[in-house]
Automatic annotation (TrEMBL):
Assigned keywords, A-Z: Hydrolase
Keyword Hydrolase: yes
Organism: Facklamia lactis
Pfam families: DUF4015 (PF13200)
GO molecular function, one term: hydrolase activity
Family annotation (InterPro entries): DUF4015, GH
DUF4015 domain location: 109-441
Stated name of the protein: Glycoside hydrolase
Presence of keyword Lipid metabolism: no
Gene3D superfamilies named among the record's database cross-references: Glycosidases (3.20.20.80)
Lineage: superkingdom: Bacteria
Amino acid sequence: MDSESGVFLKKQSYKGIILLFTLFLLSACNLKAEKEETVETYDLPTVEMDYSDEEIVAFNNRVNQGEANQYEGLNIHNTPLLTAPEELPPALFYDSGVNIPYPEEGVKGVYVPASVLEDPEYYQQLLDYVDQTALNAMVIDFKDDLGQIVSDVDSDNKLVNENSIALVDFKKILKDLEERQIYPIARIVTFKDNLLSTSHPEYSFKSAEDGEIWQDGNGAQFINPFMQEVWDYNVAVAIEAAKMGFKEIQFDYIRFPEGFETFSDTLEYNLGDYEAYVTDDPELFGQERVYAINDFLEYANERIAPFGADVSADVFGYTAIAGDAADVRGIGQNFSQMAERVDVISSMIYPSHWDYGFFGLESPDLFPYEVVDQYMYTEKELLSKVTNPATSRPWLQDFTDSGLDPGTYQEYGAQQVQEQIVALHEYGIHEFLLWNAGGFYTEGVDYAPEITGNEFYY
């Protein structure tokens, strides 16, 4: 009887403990609920901008010019923390199947228009001429001055396919160049493009008065460098060239139309993200165009890199001389900033293209040596301050500019071409490109005085 009573009492005790514990949990939950119900809310203070729109534009400009950091209070480091090795394993790149290494003696090339490639006899003559001289490269139109992609390509990009014409068989031509180890460069006329601007006016510049697509005095139309769609199209064209086997992509007309700063307010066009950089400050007016060109080159370089091709840009020689002048900002070119973003920078320094009196020369076309000599003095100084070791490979004149006034120009032959090459040589520059719109070049020139040891005095 006593043992059963003990068991009974123990059971009652357990029940009591469980009941007390349950009551404790319920009380805790009620307290928590009461606390949650009594949470107080506060209205946040109104946040007002500390800076005016003008101050924000000015700050964005300083960031793009490397004069400020996007995070206030942090120190600016103008030198890279990491550097890429000069050579990467071939396995990291797309293999086009075309093996033409960069010439050890430097690129010495000629421009070859599609008309030459369509003429089998002269094409063979030009191949022989390059093969038999110190010349070793060809700059070939891949996307021409009208915007035509002059070879049939099979691209995933609809616009690329639409603008491709089967004028030239580049696969055959690249095999010819590979046999002779002639370095192939694909010239891509970038923002001058009648074809795309006509089929897609939304990518172009239109008159604010009548809505018609703007044309320059020669009937050329431009597509808008502010637009990502325009970037993507030109990069897609470049990638097709690299996949075929071209070892370098040369962007020409990498700019806005000449004089754009004087008539841009009469046009309708999309500024995209670059509207944030527009300012009325005369010292910065048009700077958004420079940013757009710089950003395109960065974007293109990154996208083309996996395909194993270098990137080069053609610039006006005047761009290097004039620096940050208003008319240079007008077309969006800044020599030093562009050189930072490419493997090769090619200034067009044709003596005939400088105005009367430039470099103190009454008629620059008559003084090819002096023009190149004085130009290179400035370019060398600019490139010495560029972090990226871009190669200087200027465009030289191998044509007669008979459009100049009588007495201010001369017939260009071996002597005039030689003078330009010697002027480069004296600055230690042994790379160059020769321009002749028809693809006809002067014979009897020593293209490599640094190798032959021939001495010239001018």
